[in-house]
Amino acid sequence: MKKNDSNIKKAIKYLNNNECIAIPTETVYGLAGNAYSDKAVSRIYKLKKRPSNNPLIAHYYNLKDLKKDCEIDITFKRLYKKFCPGPISFVLKLKKTSRISKIITNNSNSIAVRFPSHSLTRKLLKKINYPLAAPSANISSSISPVSKQDVIDEFGPKLKLILDGGSSKIGLESTIINLIGKPHILRLGGVNSKSIYKLISPFESKNKKKIKIKVPGTSKLHYSPGIPVRLNAKKNYQNEAYILIKKRKKLDKNYFYISKKNNLKEAAKNLYGTLRIIKKYGYKKIAIEKIPNINIGEAINDRILRASKK
Ligand code: AMP
Ligand code: MG
Questions:
Q1: Ligand 1: which atom is nearest the Cα of residue 173?
Q2: H or E stretch at 32
Q3: Do the domain assignments include residue 172?
Q4: Alpha-carbon distance 206 to 199, whole Å?
Q5: Whole-number pLDDT of residue 1
Q6: Residue range 157-182, pLDDT digits in tens
């Protein structure tokens, strides 16, 4: 506990100096910098090698802080009340008076915002007087980090501080919902689409079957382990790592369980770490068994589909 407090002090010092640090969140680890500072935000893009047209999510402590920068409406309030702090991001209109760096939003007048629930990061957010721009703490297009070690593997000594918050509880990125115009989901994630649509009026959720993924960062190859991924695999071929969610009778050194009892939450939490391990072992190919497309299974399927794109 004491160590965490002194690390938070260090974190604030770096952030006030426009440096980037890594922070734990319940979704994945983030590479954080002062969202009001062009200098800090440019550093994030440079470190991540992220294309400048791919905007960043700003992380806030609470509604009061958010209102300084963004316009909100009743749909937002309803979703906020139910899911925040938690794994959901909202695209909102920026206020004219907002101090958010234009670099984050790629000069647009909208911004994606989130309220992470991890206690360490909440403690940090409470103590600073600016939001944190924090994309996932990985080199652009690779697998997001879900532990301190994953962040070290991505950036080595380039990062001065990584706040250690243990392994990320959810293990997949946030769900992103665009609340400008008719609400629609841009990226599936930690909060499942059904529970979101339940809270949105029937008029607003008319198009709920069609989830359009239009976010720049999710349109091409993303979340990639860097080796071919085969989906809905009923068996594995020789030398192929096989990701499973249901226990098999047979033992095989190439089997990697992300859950043994078809538990989708557990599978989501273990997915990225398992992809990293498989790569470290030197496998050249991955097969993944069919994942049920319900609850967080939707987000798992979204990520492995992207991981499988060539
Ligand atoms: P990451 O920070 O790595 O989880 O990625 C954040 C995702 O949010 C990216 O896919 C961005 O394209 C998306 N995003 C951030 N800001 C906006 C915005 N203003 N409008 C639409 N998508 C956004
Ligand atoms: Mg990312």
A1: 4
A2: strand 30-34
A3: yes
A4: 13
A5: 54
A6: 999 999 999 999 999 999 999 999 99
User: d(Cα 61, Cα 114) in Å, to the nearest integer?
Assistant: 9
145, 175, 197: which is the final residue of a domain? 197
CB half-sphere exposure, 8, CA atoms < 13 A: 17
Q: Exposed, middle or buried, 278 (CB in 10 Å: 0-12/13-18/19+)?
A: buried
Domain boundary among 197, 217, 252: 197
**What is the 8-class DSSP label of residue 258?**
S
Whether omega for the bond prior to residue 85 falls within 30 degrees of 0, making it cis, is yes
Cα of 18 from ligand 2 centre, angstroms: 21
Cβ contacts of residue 267 below 8 Å, gap of 6+?
245, 258, 259, 291, 296, 297, 300
The Cα 225–Cα 271 span in angstroms is 11
CA 282 to chain centre: 26
- Nearest protein CA to atom 2 of ligand 1, as residue: 135
The atom of ligand 1 lying closest to the CA of 134 is 2
Position 215 confidence tier, pLDDT thresholds 50, 70, 90: low
Number of domains in the chain: 2
- Looking up tokens 């809905």, which residue turns up? 232
Reported as a single tens digit per residue, the pLDDT across 49-91 is 999 999 999 999 999 999 999 999 999 999 999 999 999 999 9
- Closest C-alpha to ligand 1, atom 19: 111
Average pLDDT estimate for 17-34: 98
- Residue 109: which CATH number? 3.90.870.10
Quote the domain boundaries for residue 193.
Answer: 3-197
